[in-house]
Amino acid sequence: MRLLWQRAGMLQKLLPQTKHYRRWLATTTASARGNGQEEKEKDNARYKWSTPESKAEMLLYGVCWTGGLGLAYFLLTQRGEPEAKLDDEALARLWHITARKDLPTYKAEQVEQHNAPDKRIWVTYGLGVYDVTEFAENHPGGDKIMMAAGSAIDPFWTIYQQHNTLEVLELLESFRIGNLEGVTVASTDEELGSPWAQEPKRHALLKPASKRPFNAEPPIGLLAEKFYTPNELFYVRNHLPVPVLTPEEYELEVDASGGEQKEPLTLTLAQIKALPKHTVTAAIMCGGNRRSEMTSIKAVKGLSWGAGAVGNAKWSGARLCDLLREQGVQPNESMHVIFEGADLDPTSHPYGASIPLSKALDPRGDVILAYEMNDSPLTRDHGYPIRVIVPGTVGARNVKWLTRIVVADHESDSHWQQNDYKGFSPSTDWDTVDFGKAEAIQAMPVTSAICTPLPGERVKVNPQDGHITVRGYAWSGGGRKILRVDLTGDAGKTWHVAELEQEDAPDGRHYGWSLWTARLPITKDQQELQQVEIWAKAVDSAYNVQPEKFEHIWNLRGVLANAYHKVKVKLA
After folding, report:
1. d(Cα 139, Cα 145) in Å, to the nearest integer?
2. Which residues sit opposite 177 in a β-bridge?
3. Is 404 helix (H, G, I), strand (E, B) or coil?
4. Among this protein's residues, is 139 annotated catalytic?
5. pTM score, two decimals?
6. Which positions carry the signal peptide feature in this UniProt record (predicted)?
7. Residues 388, 339 contacting (CB under 8 angstroms)
8. Separation of alpha carbons 263 and 425, rounded Å
9. Which H helix or E strand runs over 469?
10. pLDDT band at 346 (very low <50, low <70, confident <90, very high)
């Protein structure tokens, strides 16, 4: 009998650690999800563990004290406590891949709309859809969840294996609000012959701004973690379907005649790789980076990029200036170099862009025909097998899948050179715009962005010195070096200079970005209010500085969005 009493005590200790916790989570989060679940919550409350007159407790005690101890003894002697817990965890790991009939079904497009606290924060995990708004705002790991807001947390779950515990899985399931609609019918776009049929596989962490053509950026919170952006997390900007090119069949045509009658040169991939190899560190930034911030002032036309449409990499390949000089090309300030890719529009016209010949011929311009990115072959999304890298220049001029180079007395006549990627006055609208009178963007203006903390994140103030840590990136086009990044938490009354991490390159050839870290002091008033708005601005070697407000630089295409980066966070 003494042994039975000991086993009964063990049973009492075991049950509150599992059933009690699970039932508590399921009942206390119902009100947070809303949807008229008050009656359901009252009903569930009757089944909470340790609730007076609880049916669950009465049932357990009835079993235990009227002969159920024998069964408890059998169970506990045949299978130990750790094994029971493992069985519970194994069952919990199936929840996210099991459709729940008691919940509604949502499409991925509906989930994507819930990507900020004011819209509610929804995420998906397997087949489950979860509303994690309150959790993300109040949990130390909320910044990682914000990276996946409106999309899948599966990639993070794979990285952070410590989440695969019974307690965490129970907590996640308590936030579940629905099932994710699966694809049951093959899309006609995926049928043989479709231009999208052979799109490459992308990393799950990339957040699409559009799916066809595919355009996506990594979570901003990851950008400042590595000086060289991992290839698989480098933002993707495609204007057309990704072409399929094989190294055996690849050819690059080089027409250096400048309009004269001269046979163009044709190079194979092997011949390009046989040329002297040159390496340059360069950041590539989309002209529409941070467009979403400009859109908040007034609507613009273009993809709604955040601050992640930028990446920094080490590029290797043959120098364009060497190739052109071998073809007898001489300096001429009025000439241009046109690049064409293998990606074609429905009329079979290729993506095209051009740069001044002076940039192409300048050895300090470091323009290369790149076949490596961070010491690895280019991936298809980044231009395999050859991409022209034009350091310090807007991403649109860094043509991928390069198949043709032409030296000409005019710019490229492509849509993307003539009728896109140009800046205008804030007063210019679509009724008055004249793209023919505006210069095409080449070198980008100075900019910076706060990567962490994320907007709306709850940040813990260091109790010893009253500071919070802020990290981000800064970059300026034209090879201009970043001299300084200033931050303020009091709307510009006081400024604090960040520490820079940057490559040791001479000014004028400083094509890589700079990462920065700052310790921002938090005042007692801000701690009482439990919030602060952080501003960041960068200064380059020409002492160009970011403008304060987007109202002053707004333009109808939403390009060149380089105003102060401002992030509001909560304080803990």
Report:
1. 10
2. none
3. strand
4. yes
5. 0.72
6. none
7. yes
8. 44
9. strand 467-475
10. confident
